[in-house]
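Why do we care about 3D structure at all? Because function follows from shape, and shape follows, mostly, from sequence. That is the central idea of this module. The next example makes it concrete: a single protein chain, its amino acid sequence, and then its structure expressed as tokens.
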Amino acid sequence: MERIVKDSTDSVMKYVARQTWTRWAFVTALTAVPVAAQLGLGNATSSIGGMAQGTARASIAQSAGGIAGPGAGVRPELNASSAISQNTVLTARIGSLVPATTTPAAAEAGFRSDSDFVTTLHAAHNLNIPFEDLKAQTTGKGAVSLNRAIRKLRPDLDSKDVKENETLAAHQSERDLQQSAQAGARDRVAQRVTSDDRLAARLNTMVPPGQSLREAAAGFKSEDQFMATLHAANSNGLPFNDLKDRVTAGQSLGTAIHDMKPTMDANTSAHAAADAEAQSRNDKIQASASAKASASASAR
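And the structure:
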């Protein structure tokens, strides 16, 4: 009997000791964070802060009778990577797509990821669907897929058109996220176009007001693709940035022209794209001829 009592007493004492140590470690960690910060120990501050947060989470979970799993007690919209609020380059890229009545961070709330959010923004813009309407269909209770939401809000589109637009929006989102992650890197196409003074002089007249030639050329795969898109926008009365948004996401120039100007049939759009490509080649020929003539005159 005495042995049983002794064993029970020992178990209780060990439990109390563990709880006391945990509370002491937690309080000590919290106290050490500001001290470490004042000493300039960035890594120590992070490590100690993480230990304190982990201890707090474990303590709360134990009080609730179990260990909290990943994301437990957190609203789904807070599980996103929050790149929208932290990445100013990405925010700038999507700024024109976000409704003027809200902010990028507020518009993103409710989406499972930045990718889903940016894809929905592009789909709404491309198809002239109010963003809030598309968001209401794809987030929250009773949410449906983007494909189904588009079909509901644009019943005039057949299943092929819906799928193509869904794919385009996904590619646009992927491009935005990739390019924002590479912010600051030199753009090869923009560099080459602006380094040729004669070619730059020809193209500058077509660049949208308030935009530099370097900004307009950034993001394209080649000089020819950029110049053809620039010519197509000017020749067909289309917003250059919207046309660029489609082409740099992988859509062909002819298809992009047709989608933005549905009054033009597929044949006419294809011819318009071919004309723009021909104008692009002519610009390079003319710029090269001008450079040779100047060099010849200087040599005399």
